[in-house]
Amino acid sequence: MGDTAIRVENVCKRYRIGQRQRYKTLRDALFGVMGTPFRGLGACLSGQGTSKSYQESDNFIWALKDVSFEVKRGEVIGVVGRNGAGKSTLLKILSRITKPTKGFAEIHGRVGSLLEVGTGFHPELTGRENIYLNGAILGIKRKDIDRRFDEIVAFAEVEKFIDTPIKHYSSGMYLRLAFAVAAHLEPEILLVDEVLAVGDVAFQKKCMGKMGDVAKEGRTVLLISHNMAAVENLCQRGVVLHQGQITYIGNQAEAIAQYLKSLSGNALSLMDRKDRIGSGAVRVVGIEVKDVHGNTLDSVASAQDLDLYLYFVTATGFRSRRVIASLLLKTQLDVPVFLHHNRLTGDEFGELPESGAFVCRLQRLPLPPSTYQITYSILADGECLDGITNAVEMTVVEGDFFGSGEVPPISHGVCLAEGRWRLLPGCAPSGLRRQS
Amino acid sequence: MNLQEAESSTILITPAQGWVSLHLKELWEYRELFYFLVWRDMKVRYKQTILGVAWAILQPVFTMFVFTVFFGWLAHMPSDGVPYPIFAYSALLPWQLFVRSLTASSNSVVANENLITKVYFPRLVAPLSATVAGVLDFAIASVVLFVMMWFYHIVPTSAVWLLPLFVLLAIATALGVGLWLSALNVQYRDVGHAIPFLTQIWLFVTPIVYPSSLVPEPWRIVYGLNPMVGVVEGFRWSLLGTGSGPGGILTASTLVACALLVSGMFYFRRMEQTFADTV
Q: Which of A24, A260, B29, B108 is deepest in the core (most CB within 10 A)?
């Protein structure tokens, strides 16, 4: 078997669209049985139901297409790609949770995989009981848990509550306990999703530190990640997945560059978008993010000053002087963060030239690191001229917003608020003062 | 951890393959997970209830009471010369074990969806552990039987040591049917609705409220194709000394139970390959 730890050969995975609604009622299957008794029953039992028609239709997506790569023993490899690029499917196949549709993979050595922390935690059981249960689920031997029990509890910082049912835990405690058990999984080959780094900033640092330790111990790690800093620091090699296919494989810095480039490649494809709305009198042909000096950016940092360029073309004969360009920024979870348009700021464009750019200057970008969706629309005189929902993504990386080097994660709030703290001695609330 | 073992392990990941071997060796390697899942189910079962473990006794006792009033006193159902309460209870005991195990194992895959879609383990562990967790209730409810036998001055026959085998037969039947149903349940949620109905019908084709001696002789073997007939007959024979003991019925029951179990395991193994995508 040599020094190969993981070998993936032409792996394909096909999903039916709307896969998770696939379970039908028995009635559907039984109608099939009535038609062709034996064939129908056989199909019903083998789980195909009356899905013949499904089989022939095109309602499939290939989550992975001909993915092949090798990971050497002791290598730490990062897999990056946009949402829906097939990263999680790859992880699920290598973890043996789901089977590939075609192709095969080989793993040499004992595997541990973490798609989620706290899998199988039961709210009625105590912290102590859940450590053992979760350990068993992750495949950690009982004697190993016995041996490392105190270490796990200390790592999770839940000593006082270890015999309390975890339904009484705060979400932070719950996540810390969950990660603590997972962190003590000691396989030779670790398959892990980076979203596992959870909790408050201090604990996240601890989590990433732990992952770093694992990587340094010479174990083979396959890390799936959105966090470029994690990939940069932990991995030696990177794989870029795009729409189920590998577009780059090689050294990690280059992989990150490729990935970021694929993100900014959005601007080019804006013209091909089919979900455009509006009359088309003005059309946005590209969106770019630039710094104040005019350099195009792949990603921006919190607290950075930046310009958002909406390049447009105007149809001949369009004369309105009251054009409104509007931007809506949303998180990956579709939570609106802010809306911005030139009527809010009182800026007028006047009559539009044939082409140009609406430029929105944002100062001290008050956003935590994450990827955001930008929706734009162009309006004039109450009419929509152009608009695309989730037209482009904007990646924000960590920046020193507060001047302290620390920025809370997006899970703790979708914006960063400007502000200072001070201490004022000898004060009491105005209500209390009146009583005394 | 055992590195020696790990060095030699190679995992091959291939597309779904139709009928596959049972891989019992791997199942054995995951015995700790099995143990913890059984323990979890037992531990959690009566959490946040007032009566707690008393439920394990209340259910069969009340059922016995109702059966005794309606079938024993009002309908004068024959009971092979044994007081009707004990006649009914000795059958309800394995019956409730069967129903509980069958229901739990049929729902096991769907109930453990969060595990199935997030971690690998031999999927057979789910129905197996769900089935076995029912044994605790059975053990608790058994205490009542022995109290009743003491009350009615009934001494178990010398064949009482065969009792565990009949318990095993009940579990095997529940697991066999449960394996089929749990795999079907992933695809067709109708199964969840059908189970209460199925067990109700099954109750009446099993000699629980009536003795199997009511069934005409030539039909006994056919009757025995219901494995629970063999279980209930075995229970009454070894505890109360009624009936004729192991014979045609028990043989038929055992064969059917084994067939259900083996076919269920293979069917489950075949279907488990798509569980994570479908559940």
A: B108
* ipTM summary value: 0.86
Tokens of A239: 């794989």
Q: Tell me A278's DSSP state.
A: S
B184: distance to nearest CA of chain A, Å?
7
Split chain A (436 residues) into runs of 10 and give each run's mean pLDDT: 85 74 57 56 59 51 91 91 85 93 92 86 93 91 92 90 92 87 86 70 75 81 80 86 90 82 62 81 89 84 91 87 92 85 91 90 91 91 89 86 84 88 88 60
A213 CB within 8 Å of a chain B CB: no
C-alpha to C-alpha distance for B88 and B85, rounded to whole angstroms:
5
Question: Are residues A407 and A401 in contact, defined by beta-carbon separation less than 8 angstroms?
Answer: yes
Q: Give the C-alpha separation, B132 to B120, whole Å.
A: 21
pLDDT tens digits, residue range B158-177? 888 999 999 999 999 999 99
Window 156-195 of B: residues touching A by CB (8 A cutoff) are: 184, 186-191
Does B217 contact A at CB distance below 8 Å? Answer: no
Under 8 Å CB-to-CB from B1, ≥6 apart: which residues? A110, A141, A144, A186
Name the domain count of chain B. Answer: 1
| pTM given for the model | 0.73
Which candidate, A142, A188, A182, places its Cα nearest to that of B34? Answer: A142
A102 touches chain B (CB under 8 A): yes
Residues of B (46-85) whose Cβ lies below 8 Å from A = 47-48
Q: Which among B13, B15, B40 has the least Cβ separation from residue A96?
A: B13
Q: How many CB atoms lie within 10 A of CB A31?
A: 12
Structural domain span for residue B96: 25-278
Question: Does residue B38 fall inside a structural domain?
Answer: yes
Whose tokens are 């973490």? That residue is: A114
Neighbours of A333 (CB within 10 A): 9
If you ran DSSP here, which 8-state letter would residue A144 be given? H
A108:B273 CB<8 A: no
Continuous H helices in A59-199: 87-94, 127-138, 142-156, 171-183
All structural domains of chain A, each given as residue ranges with its CATH number in brackets, are 4-11+65-262 (3.40.50.300), 18-58 (no CATH), 272-412 (2.70.50.60)
Give domain status of residue B19, yes or no. no
Does the residue B13 lie in any domain?
A: no
List the 47-86 stretch of A: residues with Cβ below 8 A of B.
47, 49
Q: Vertex B120, ends A144 and A166: CA angle to 5°?
A: 60
The answer as to whether B142 is a domain residue is yes
Instruction: State pLDDT tens for residues A340-384.
Output: 999 999 999 988 888 889 999 999 999 998 889 899 999 998 889
